[in-house]
Amino acid sequence: MKKRFASLVLVLLGLLCFTRSSSVTQRVEARGSDSAISEEVDLAEGEEPRQIVVGTTGQTKPLNYFDDNKELTGLEIDILDEIDQRLEEIEITYEITEFPSLFAGLDSGKFDLVANNLGENEERRDKYLFSLYPYVITHNVIITDTDQPANLDLEDLAGQSFGVVPASPQSMFLENWNDQNPDLAVDIQYVDSDPSTIIRDVYNGRFDATIYKTIYLQDVQETFGIELQSHPIEDEEAIQPPGSYFIYRVQDEDLRNLMDSALAEMREEGRLAELSQVYLGQDDTELTPEMIAKNDAIEAERLQEGQVDPDQEREDQDQSEAASGKIFAPEAIVQMLPDILARLPITVLL
User: Fold this and answer.
1) Do strands 50-56 and 113-118 pair parallel, antiparallel, or not at all (unpaired)?
2) pLDDT, tens digit, for every residue of 219-246?
3) What are the structural domains of the chain?
4) Rounded alpha-carbon distances, angstroms, from residue 102 to 96, 111, 118, 202, 278
5) 58 backbone φψ class: left, alpha, beta (φ>0; ψ -120 to 50)
6) pTM
7) Residue 321 CA, distance from chain mean position
């Protein structure tokens, strides 16, 4: 019996020496050849850029739309085009789809990311990966005719009509207001129209008010030469947190980080602010300390939830290998050696 244990120890020690020798040899070969290293770099440099398909609607002026020459343009498009120019690793193309198909295309892998003035909500945060910070920050406001007094809130507009799209964040906000404030309820008028039409319907007198983001209001005023009035909403976060994001699949974290690095450079250099001035007439890209802190906390929580305990991962791997019949692989035996030696009688080791 002792001879068997001694033989086993010798075999294990031999395997250990062989494994360590092979490992050292591999490290020496990797370090000792400059030409081998340069070949790897050359291969990396010779790789084709990854083709990135962005899903968008082309109907969200001024963020993405078709100009008079039928060219896709807008704030989002200019930002993405500049990211494309700054990053050699990727090459961006666009695919137009209807809004309901954006996330279906992202889920299926048809799109690598989607861009369409997309804000955040709990469902999207749970399922997708967002750019770390929004690339543009616009706010939902109450929009009325200029005949109305300034700085109105919902209490001041009790009983007046609001034109909104059904099942939109704005309509749900008003429905919640009416539920909680029945004595100050507003008259919700549901209409299946685009933002431009609804905002112009306020100007034309069809509705007393609506709620939309400032980017749409400004575009309508400039495009149609009309003037309306905006009123800030105190609890705007109840509608939707301000800010528009690029949204990715969760497994594309490397792509998100790469594009975020270019976005950070553009923000630091003032390029985002310049593009915002072109399309929005003002700088709507500045991040507040509160927004930075909130998004940093969301990212930290996401990373913490995604972390794997290395010891547990190694244990799971060992169990998997044992179940698949790989427990007697040399590397597995080497890992078992200290435990085996500890169990052997000292006389055997001698």
Assistant:
1) parallel
2) 899 899 999 999 999 888 889 888 999 9
3) 50-137+242-304 (3.40.190.10), 140-238 (3.40.190.10)
4) 9, 8, 10, 29, 26
5) left
6) 0.68
7) 36
